[in-house]
Amino acid sequence: MWNVWHYIHFIVNLSMLAFAASSTIHGNPADDLVDRINLNRTAQKLKELHNNPGLGCMALQYIDACQGNCSSTNTLSCRSPEEDITEIFAPNCGVELPTVDIISGRIIGCQSNYLTPDQVFSSILSRDNKTLSVVRDKKNTELGTAFKKVHHGLFIWSVLFSSGQTNSTFVLEGGTGIKQKGGCFSGTGAQCSGANKVWFLNRKSVFKYALLTCLAHITVFPLVM
Ligand SMILES: *[C@@H]1O[C@H](CO)[C@@H](O)[C@H](O)[C@H]1NC(C)=O
Ligand SMILES: *[C@@H]1O[C@H](CO)[C@@H](O)[C@H](O)[C@H]1NC(C)=O
Ligand SMILES: *[C@@H]1O[C@H](CO)[C@@H](O)[C@H](O)[C@H]1NC(C)=O
Ligand SMILES: *[C@@H]1O[C@H](CO)[C@@H](O)[C@H](O)[C@H]1NC(C)=O
Fold first, then answer.
1. Among the atoms of ligand 4, which is closest to the Cα of residue 168?
2. Ligand approaching nearest to the C-alpha of 126
């Protein structure tokens, strides 16, 4: 009898180990980019920015509006019309219109391969003084980030900043807004892996989990017999 409990204990430990291994892969690269931006701001004694999911979803719409403009040199010049914010971005996300506030900064960049959030910070957000001054703007109070794999394997990343009241702006209807078809955005707390590379990592850890669980069952099988 002692042996049975011993084995059950062993299986529980094994499962926990497998879970820990799979959870070391961070859930959403868009959230990682927010963390990266805040790390740089707080290191310079600037206020940490609130990760607003409504703004994150709007950043995803900004990608859709600009995806045709990524040039072969990996630059992206895009100035979508101001009225898109209330006429297209907010309705597509289910952001309550009266809560739409000023977008005080926008940064967008594209790349022909997947970039990690660290690489996005150093190559897209730090690409010149203009983008850096947006990242460090004292007026900003909140932000949202998004990325999406578009046609021809291009990855587009975008960041929107706002100077609005963080607890009452860009509010998603019903708390979650309208479900998006592709890409990932920050602030929801949900896992997202819109990029192939991340999906591959996830698949690997799922495999590890399956293998460990399977091993645990094989070990206990002779005991049950
Ligand atoms: C913040 O980012 C800028 C641009 O990449 C870099 O030059 C600077 O050293 C960073 N500061 C800190 C404190 O990490
Ligand atoms: C895309 O680029 C073209 C040519 O530079 C420009 O006319 C157009 O306004 C840009 N589109 C957006 C959404 O910025
Ligand atoms: C960026 O800013 C730094 C310091 O503020 C300045 O020395 C540098 O010339 C600027 N670079 C460009 C390309 O404007
Ligand atoms: C938002 O926060 C401010 C102070 O930070 C407070 O005065 C205001 O009532 C809050 N609004 C909502 C809708 O919670």
1. 13
2. 1
CA separation for the pair 49, 91 (Å, rounded): 24
User: Which regions of the chain does DSSP assign to beta strands (E)?
Assistant: 50-51, 103-111, 142-149, 155-162, 184-185
Q: Whose CA is nearest to atom 13 of ligand 4?
A: 168
Interval between CA 185 and ligand 2 midpoint (Å):
24
| Tens digit of each residue's pLDDT (9 = 90 or more) over 172-193 | 999 999 999 999 999 998 899 8
Strand runs (DSSP E) across 58-191, as ranges?
103-111, 142-149, 155-162, 184-185
> What does the pLDDT look like over 32-55, one tens digit per residue?
999 999 999 999 999 999 999 999
Q: Which of residues 152 and 145 earns the better pLDDT score?
A: 145
End-to-end CA distance of the chain: 14
